[in-house]
Structures are given as C-alpha cells and as structure tokens.
Specification:
Elements (H helix, E strand, L loop, with lengths): L5 H21 L4 H46 L1
Helix pairs in contact: 1-2
C-alpha cells in the first residue's frame, strides 16, 4: 500500500476492530452513532494526513526545481 504508511494502516485496523467489537457488545443501539462517529473521525484524520503528506512532497519537489534553476542561472552568469 503505497498510499499509507504503516502507522496509518495500524490505526485503521485498530479503529475498525474496535468499531466491530463495539457493535458486537453494544448491539444496534443509539450508541452505534457514537461509534460510527469515532470511526469516521479517525478515517478523516488519516485522509487529511495523507493529503498533507502529498502536498508537502509536491512543495519539496517544486523547491528542488527552483534550486536547480537558480544553480543553472548562477553557473551561466
């Protein structure tokens, strides 16, 4: 899985397992909304971390390109 690091995968699995266990022990009561909310917040945080990582990677790549252009300009001067 190239999209997620190992920490994210562990968090997803742990959250899902706890969600299923909560369903099993509490049943389909009104607490299901709370459990689903916790699960969705965890997923949202992981998605936000992934997007932030991709954005940082893109910025690093663009900065590298700018640095290389500046080096070329200085060498030609």
């Amino acid at each position: 899985m190239k999209y997620f690091d190992m920490g994210s995968i562990v968090i997803i699995m742990a959250t899902f397992i706890l969600f299923v266990l909560a369903l099993f022990f509490t049943g389909l009561t009104h607490d299901i909304l709370l459990e689903a909310g916790v699960f969705l917040v965890s997923v949202k945080l992981i998605i936000m971390a992934y997007k932030s990582s991709k954005s940082a990677s893109k910025i690093e790549h663009e900065l590298y390109e700018i640095k290389e252009l500046l080096k070329q300009k200085n060498n030609n001067s």
